[in-house]
Design goal:
Strand content: under 5%
Radius of gyration: 20 Å
Number of domains: 1
Distance between the termini: 11 Å
Number of helices: 4
Structural class: mainly alpha
Largest sheet: none
Number of strands: 0
Low-confidence stretches: none
Mean pLDDT: 88
């Protein structure tokens, strides 16, 4: 039993999820910057609703659930080995 405690949990899958989140957030930031630029250029307030939609969708698309499920799988794998 102590051998299993000494083994490291594989963090790679969870780290990859975080990397994916960063890439997604960087894309969202670019989109929001573009919307702000268009709003200024065209003097149209309706781009604010586009920005709101982008931010709302951001939380759904981040897949934060994977920050829970991936570590659980890593611990389960460690316990099985």
């Amino acid at each position: 039993m102590t051998e299993k405690r000494d083994q490291a949990v594989d963090v790679e899958m969870t780290a990859e999820v975080i990397d994916d989140m960063v890439r997604y957030l960087e894309g969202t930031i670019k989109t929001l910057k573009r919307l702000a630029e268009k709003m200024r250029e065209r003097q149209r307030i309706d781009y604010a609703s586009d920005a709101m939609q982008e931010v709302s969708n951001m939380f759904l698309n981040l897949r934060m659930d994977l920050l829970v499920t991936r570590p659980i799988r890593a611990f389960q794998s460690l316990l099985r080995d």
